[in-house]
Amino acid sequence: TTIANSLKWVCQFGYEEMTIDMFYEELVELFDFIETSLSVADNNDKSASTSAGAAEDESNHNNAQQQLHAKLNEENSTSDYCTWYLRVLTAAQMKSNPDRFLPFLLADETNMMMDIPTFCSREVEPMGKECGMVTVAALAECLGVKVVIEYMDGRLSNNDAAV
Fold first, then answer.
1. φ and ψ at 162, to 5 degrees?
2. DSSP secondary structure letter of residue 104
3. Residue 136's closest CA among 95, 102, 66, 89?
4. CA distance 66 to 27
5. Per the confidence metrics, is the pTM higher than 0.70?
6. Which residues are CB-neighbours of 131 under 8 A, at least 6 positions away?
7. Could you tell me if 69 and 53 are in contact, meaning their C-beta atoms sit under 8 angstroms apart?
8. Which distant-in-sequence residues (6+ apart) come within 8 Å of 80 by Cβ?
9. How confident is the model at residue 163 (pLDDT cuts 50, 70, 90)?
10. Which of 33, 48, 105, 118 is most deeply packed, by most CB within 10 A?
């Protein structure tokens, strides 16, 4: 699934388009902003032939970074909207292939295994919940990216260095 075509896809798993459209649009706009900023920077790198041009390019790059930083640090705005939509993508991925993820779900406090919809409504969709390996794997699969999870709990790695 790509971000651009994800809205219709997540609606297949019980999400109302009218409810999530704003969150989807915010994520698309953020990626468009990043893509535009990167392509402008790339074009400027190719065309900067003078030191004055290079200084202007650096200034434009810094401005884009500041704009991105501001977007991602505004409370109840871009960051929260994008995070929630990514949570929806994660839940939809888990719902799209429940047999893939069900064996990895932990029992709740009653020691009863949760089904995928219950797990998603309790652990994936709510803001403020931490992501575990199952949810990270689901989002990575959904977006077609690879991730490496590093633990920083003092365990020894393969080369006997503390992680």
1. -65, 140
2. G
3. 89
4. 18
5. yes
6. 90, 139
7. no
8. 127
9. very low
10. 105
